[in-house]
Write a structure and sequence with these properties.
The complex is a heterodimer.
Chain A: H1 2-11, E1 13-17, E2 30-36, H2 40-43, E3 46-49, E4 58-62, H3 64-78, E5 79-84, H4 88-94, E6 100-112, H5 114-117, E7 121-133, E8 138-140, E9 146-148, E10 153-166, H6 173-195, H7 200-222, H8 231-242, E11 248-249
Helix pairs in contact in A: 3-6
Chain B: H1 2-23, E1 27-35, E2 47-52, H2 63-76, E3 81-83, H3 85-91, H4 108-112, H5 115-124, E4 126-150, E5 153-174, E6 179-200, H6 207-223
Parallel strand pairs in B: 2-3, 2-4
Antiparallel strand pairs in B: 1-6, 4-5, 5-6
Helix pairs in contact in B: 2-6
Classes of the chains: A alpha/beta, B alpha/beta.
């Protein structure tokens, strides 16, 4: 019975559902209304690694919930308003006020534990692929799901993140991997905040928004009685019609 | 014959236990200090934060070690307000993460250009920022121990020993003038023993605790008007 238990323990799957308390960033929010779409692959992200030998265990690391929780808090602190785009109705209703739509994806996730490396450190490394698209690039598919053309982006940039935690007394492998994942998420946020404005395409986009707001302020002071032109509305509708649904389903 | 061998082995382990009890708890400590511009009248109502360095690839300064030093300073002089490290890092997220934490006191000015960061620093009245870099590691181990389990009986027999070394350096930044005003370092080492006759009895040398006390005493002496 004992032998069977030991054998079973060796072959079992170690599962981690990443959990943590994430702080609000200490920032002056950018005067931007940002749309955010978490694709299902992101919101339900999990990582499975099959054991290489009998002495090792399979690993299943579920980061999806923590990803959504973490990035929600970060974006809320970083931008004036964040609009979660979950359906076509939101796209249509809020299109005029949304400056851009951010779509995060996890490109890669790697982990190491002491049994892999003989180093007393648990590590998690992640590579994100962020895409910023115009609201006009979001389409509705026949089944109602949202999609976008990947080539139709305002900016696309990677963010890497790293988290490590040393082995500690009375800490299980699962707890240590969870902690490393939380550190990696925090690192991803720090990397995102510090590199956002420095990404060339983002800088161009931010300049465009600032210029548009200046122009709007000037025109409103010149002609206070006239209605505000929604410059993007005609582009939006033509772009939606023009572009095929060739992009990624969200 | 086997009885005599067992008696001999028991005598050897008993001898090792006695030796371990004599040597157990022995820790060697070396402390170096170089400080200037001491606040002779103390730091008044200002606060101090103690932070661990965690940007090196092969180790992190332990959170519990930072807490230990903070507790040591506060218990030595309750008038000194030591801000909790995790609370501080969370309050200032993402500016004190391993990727973003300032490595030089001069770079704090860049952080203070961010209005919410500057406002929060004003709120907490920070006078000193102390960075601790280092860690505690186990070194070479020797000995052997075997454990067995049978119907109604279980136990271990043998002897193990391993070393522990701590090496920490505290760098004190004067937050008002944005300059480094001192460094204190502590190196400690000790030997741990684990004799086992049926039940293993660990005799752990308080290496990290001694490093905490040594570093804490020096920092307390620097910060407190009463020491």
């Amino acid at each position: 019975m004992l032998c069977f238990t030991l054998l079973a323990a060796g072959c079992s799957t170690k599962q981690v559902v990443v959990e943590g308390n994430f702080p609000k960033p200490l920032l002056d929010p950018l005067p931007i209304t940002l749309g955010v779409i978490y694709p299902s692959a992101f919101a339900e992200h999990e990582f499975f690694d099959e054991a290489k030998g009998r002495a090792e265990s399979d690993w299943l690391v579920k980061t999806g919930e923590a990803q959504v929780e973490f990035w929600d808090i970060l974006f809320d602190g970083m931008f004036d308003e964040v609009v979660h785009i979950r359906d076509w109705e939101t796209v249509q209703r809020r299109a005029a006020e949304i400056d851009g739509v951010l779509i995060p994806a996890i490109g890669d996730l790697q982990y190491t534990i002491p049994t892999h490396t003989n180093v007393k450190i648990y590590e998690i490394w992640m590579r994100y692929e962020f895409r910023l698209v115009d609201i006009a690039a979001i389409h509705q598919q026949e089944d109602g799901a949202l999609s976008f053309n990947p080539d139709e982006h305002l900016a696309a940039w990677p963010i890497t993140a790293y988290g490590k935690t040393p082995t500690a007394f009375l800490q299980t492998d699962e707890e240590a991997v969870n902690l490393a994942a939380v550190v990696a998420l925090r690192d991803a946020g720090a990397h995102f905040v510090t590199s956002f404005g420095a990404t060339p395409d983002i800088a161009v986009w931010l300049d465009g928004i600032a210029r548009r707001e200046q122009d709007a302020a000037l025109s409103s002071s010149d002609d206070a009685s006239g209605p505000q032109p929604i410059a993007q509305s005609s582009e939006t509708s033509s772009s939606v019609e023009r572009e095929p649904d060739s992009g990624g389903t969200l | 014959m086997s009885m005599r061998r067992a008696e001999k082995q028991l005598a050897r382990v008993t001898g090792l236990i006695l030796l371990a009890l004599v040597l157990g708890g022995c820790v060697n400590a070396t402390v170096d200090e170089m400080t200037y511009n001491e606040p002779v009248a103390g730091i008044g109502e200002s606060s101090v934060v103690i932070l661990g360095r965690r940007h090196k690839p092969d180790y992190d300064t332990e959170f519990d070690f930072i807490e230990c030093i903070g507790d040591h300073i506060h218990s030595g002089d309750p008038s000194i307000e030591v801000i909790n490290e995790i609370a501080f890092i969370n309050q200032f997220y993402p500016w004190f993460e391993p990727r973003t934490a300032p490595l030089q006191p001069q770079t704090i000015d860049q952080l203070l250009q961010l209005p919410p960061v500057a406002a929060r620093f004003d709120e907490i009245k920070l006078e000193y920022m102390i960075w601790i870099d280092g860690n505690t590691e186990n070194t070479e181990s020797t000995g052997s121990m075997s454990c067995g389990i049978g119907p109604g009986v279980a136990g271990c027999f043998g002897f193990g020993t391993w070393g522990t070394e701590s090496e920490y350096e505290a760098t004190i930044w004067d937050f008002t003038d944005k300059v480094e005003v001192g460094r204190v370092s502590a190196q400690t080492s000790g030997q741990n023993y684990m004799p086992a006759v049926v039940v293993p009895i660990p005799i752990i040398a308080p290496v990290q605790g001694t490093a905490c006390d040594s570093l804490g005493d020096q920092l307390l002496e620097y910060l407190s008007a009463h020491h």
